[in-house]
Structure formats: C-alpha cells, structure tokens
Amino acid sequence: MRRIAIPERVAWRAQASQLGFHFHTIDDAPYWVEDAYYQLTLKQIEEDIEAPSAVLHQLAMTLVDEVVKDEALLRQLEIPEPYWDWIARSWHERHPHLYGRMDFSYSGTGPAKLLELNYDTPTSLYEAAYFQWLWLEQIIARGDLPKAADQYNAIQELLIAAFSKLANGLPQPLYFASVKDHLEDRGTVLYLRDCAAQAGISTELIDIEDIGIAVGGRFTDLDNRVITSMFKLYPLEHLFREEFGPYLPDSQLQLFEPPWKAILSNKGVLPMLWQRYPNHPNLLEAYFEKADEPALSKGWVRKPLHSREGANVQLIAPDGTHASQAGPYADGGFIRQRYHALPQFDEWRAVVGAWIIADTPAGLGMREDSGLITRDSARFVPHAIVG
Amino acid sequence: MKRSKVLKLAVLGAAPMLLIGCEEERPALIYESVQQCIIAANLPEQTCREDYAKAEVAHAATAPRYFSDADCQADFGSGQCQQNVQSGGYFMPFMTGYMIASMMQGGAGNWQRTPGGHSAQPLYRTAGSTEWRTADNTQIGNRSGAVTVRKSTAVPPTRAVTMSRSGFGSSASARGGWGG
Questions:
Q1: How far apart are CA B20 and CA B8, in angstroms?
Q2: Which of A197, A214, A220 sits opposite B11 (nearest CB)?
Q3: pLDDT digits over A67-90, tens only?
Q4: Read out DSSP for A29-50?
Q5: How far apart are CA A370 and CA A58, in angstroms?
Q6: A204 and A173 in contact (C-beta within 8 Å)?
Q7: What are A138-152's pLDDT values in tens digits?
Q8: Which residue of A10, A315, A363, B56 has the lowest C-beta tally within 10 Å?
C-alpha cells in the first residue's frame, strides 16, 4: 500500500456540488481530498481486506445470535432492559439490515487488525460508494492511471440490490430520517434514498426531530401519516434513551438499521469477540474495564462502549506518547484494546474502512488523520488497485 | 473487476431521472357511483357497495380540508363543497368517485378474487377538470373503469392523530452529528 500524489481533477468541486456532494469541505477544512490516492494491489485487497472482513462479519453475526439469548451479555453491553425482547424478536424474525463498516489498521503487510465495527450509523458512504468510483473513471479517462487500474467498490451496486431484495415485503413509503440541519448526515440519507429509489421503493424524507407519536402508539410524519418503515441515521442507543424510545417496541415500525444492530454498534463486541476467538489474526486483544481498573498503561487504548468519531478515546502508545479526544460519551462503560499503530504515510495516519452491504463484503474507503486517533476531521482519500 | 461497471444517481444527479417509470403498478377500478360499479360488472354487487362505504369512511378522514367555503369552491367548483362538523368544521369537497385498487401485483381480472387484497379510497375532480385526484392530490388520469395506478397510489396512507413531536433528537443538540 502506498500513498501517491496525483493532480486533482479540474473543477471537481463544481461537479461534487452538482452531484449532491455538498460536504466535500467541512468548516473550511478539506474533507474529500484528491491530490493523492492510496494504491493497493489486488492481492492486498482480496486476501488482507475482503476475505477477513467476510470472516469477521460472520463471527459478529454469530455473536449477535448468542447475545440476544443472554441477559448477562445484554447487561454488559448496557442495553436497556425494556428493549431486550424487541431486539431479540428483530433478530429471530431476521429483520434485514443494509450496511456496516469495519475499520482496520492495515499497512499493506501482515494481517489487518479490527479497530472497531460501525454497524449502526456508518457514514462516509456516498464518497466511498459513488464519488470515489467516479474519480477513478475520470482519472483513467484522463490517462493518469492505466486502463487496467481498478477499485474495490461494488458498494452502490450491492446497496441497490439489497433494497431491491427487500422492496416487495417492505411497507412503503420508506422514510429516511436524519438530524435537522446536519449537512453531512443529510447528504448520506439522500444518497441512500437515491439507491432505494433506483430499486423501485417509494421514499419520504423526515427530520428525526419532526417524528410524531400518535394515539395508539404509531409514529407519524408532519402530515400525520403513519410511518411504517424508516431508515434512521441516528444511533439506536440514543433512540432508546430519548422520550419516544419506550414506544418503539410496539410501534410496528420496521427500522433500518434493525434493533439487533444495537449489539454490533457497541464497542463491547470487541472484547466479546476476543474472548471467543483469542489470538484471531484480525482481532486485537480487548477486555471490559472494571470498576477498580488501574490507570491506562503503555500500549493500550481506552474506548467508550458508545462513541463515534473517536470521541472520548484515550491511548498511550508503546513509546509513552499520550493522545486523547474530548467528547460527550464519558457517562457509560469503557473497554480497553491493545494499541496497534496506524500506518503513516507522509504526515497522515490511514484507516481502512471495509464496507459490508447486507452480508457481502463490498468495498473500501480510506480515511486519514494527522493524529493518533481518527476523528470526525479525518479526510477521505480515494484508492485504486494497480497490480 | 472489483468495481461496478456502471453507476448512476437517480435523484441527486445533475439530470435527475424520472422515477415514475420505475415504480410497480397495480390494477385498479374507478367508478363515479355504486351504480356504475354494478353495471360494469367487474365486481360482485356486494363488493361494489362495501368498497363505496369504505371509501366514504376514508373520505371523512382524508379529504382535502379548507378553513373557508370560498377556498374550497375555488379549487373544486361552485357548490362542490360541504362543511363537515365531525371533522372540526372544515370545508371539504364532495367525493365524486371511488377507486378500488389491488394490493397485489398481477394482471387485472384476477386481483378482485383475492380476499381482502384490495383497498378502496375516495376520488375528487377539481373545477373545470375531468382528471381524477386522490385525497393526497395525486393525479391518476381521466379514465374510469379498469386502469393501472402506481403502487404508492393503490395503497393509501394510514393517518393517525399525533399527540406530540420532538421526542427524538434531543441527544443530537447535545452531541452534534453522527458520522461514524
């Protein structure tokens, strides 16, 4: 794996805006970056990323099957008890899911190490699935990469296929909900909605804050229409703890991601996987932090059970370097995970995001950050397969 | 090849494609009255009557509503509106037809034999137009009798009385966005 400088496409920002990609620059900082790309070989993609992500996905799904039946495990994950039956039901009835992203530390040699699963509200989807694909097509057309250059990216194709598969049994319209006035989240749901529409599903948009609760316990839109199916780009664990949460189990709402994803969006699955498959080459040693746990020592990372974008993560590298990221997730439990350095290219530390669509490994998105912890300020950089 | 050969955007793209062609269609029957339904003989007389009654119930709940008679008549024509006391005194147009639509895919002719497999909803015509509209103001053409409609038109939305809103999203204001 290499990071290679390449000229940007002329007027790509104008093209991005035309294609619904309005968050290519966030708060004046570049988010989509194309003055370089990550180059991988086909062997690296297939053997070191695609195949392990398929295996880990299966291990994760097997874990869900175990956790839904075990109150002690549900408690350990701090999932509130009123939702246990609903979660278990959604699993036993095989409520379909759409997507997830595994983040790996991978340098190009040796096994990719799983840092965490983002299986409930992963973003960076549009840029990985579509804009990155378009970049490669245009770079090849321009002649800056050989015709044989490729990309690990069937994300959109598989998303549309997943929507098509569930279209017939799905109560419609399918609502796409995200937080009011949040450009990046809105961009992501608009993209997912685009894929659903291409699969022939009728869709509606709603802000999470505008959802209503009706007499009889059904959720409604601003027009008082009953919402029967909804994709929400909003963490399940927050829905659980908010005012309308208690209505969820009896609302007859088909939810995406489904309730059982509350298990896989939880960092507690990392120690659980390690306990079940110790020394698995793609897993890092991890355990649940106990109440009397001593302070963090060298070579370990501390992560909240619920956290996104690196918030409240703290680490001490083997050389004693400290890094920590402030955040709002300090109120719950924590896990500890063995430190595994991210590969460094120039001043950038890169994370491999391996997408799983439904249950199929689907593609890759590279993000890079200047610090030891990958945050929401991380930049998205396209990749290409050469050789 | 590890990447898709062709990708397109439907709605976000620079030239949005029309999606109407993509959505599934459902067979439907449109009549102005129970009598017309019976004469057409596509359905048993009893079904004609039951579905008309169902459409009337839906009409009371979902018909377009206006605060003033004048506004209603401006849209639906002189003398085409009535005040509905049960619905809080709003002015609503008369139901001038009804549509019986199959909930299942499949050719016309077999759907009406599926028990419970169809919906009934009220239809309206605006002033000076022969085009049918649903309570949601979806235009479905001029024709009566056997037609096809989009699936989302065949299955009318269920409505419910909303008690409150803003019960989700409180963590968002505290914590920002959710990109993971």
A1: 17
A2: A197
A3: 999 999 999 999 999 999 999 999
A4: EESB--SEEEEE-HHIIIIIII
A5: 33
A6: yes
A7: 999 999 999 999 999
A8: A10
Top residue of B4, B18, B25 to mutate, by most chain A CBs within 10 Å, is: B4
A248 neighbourhood in chain B, CB within 8 Å: none
B21 shares contact with chain A (CB less than 8 Å): no
Classify residue B2 by burial, with Cβ atoms within 10 Å: 0-12, 13-18, 19+.
middle
Angle between helices A51-67 and A269-276 (to 10 degrees): 100
pLDDT by residue, tens only, chain B of 180 residues: 999 999 999 878 655 555 544 567 888 999 999 999 999 888 899 989 999 999 998 898 788 888 899 999 999 999 999 998 776 788 999 999 999 988 776 655 555 555 457 889 999 999 999 999 998 888 999 999 999 888 778 877 777 888 999 999 998 765 555 555
Q: Give B-chain residues touching A120 at CB under 8 angstroms.
A: 180
Structural tokens at position A336: 């500890």
- Beta-sheet pairing, A300-304 with A334-338: antiparallel
Contact assignment for A212 to B162 by CB distance below 8 Å: yes
Residue with the two structure tokens 């988010």: A31
Q: Do B22 and A197 make contact, defined as CB atoms within 8 angstroms?
A: yes
Find, among B3, B48, B163, B28, the residue nearest to B104 by Cα: B28
> What is the maximal distance between C-alpha atoms in chain B?
66
For Cα atoms A13, A16, A21, give the angle at the middle one, nearest 5 degrees: 125
Q: Is B78 on the interface with A (CB under 8 A)?
A: no
Q: Which residue has the tokens 């991210």?
A: A342
Please choose, from the candidates A20, A375, A39, the residue with its C-alpha nearest in 3D space to the C-alpha of residue B10. Answer: A20
Global confidence as pTM: 0.83
Residues B1 and A149: their CA atoms lie apart, in Å, by 9
Cis preceding linkage at A257, omega within 30: yes
| Predicted-complex ipTM score | 0.92
| Residue A116 in tokens | 């965490």
Tokens of B56: 């009337």
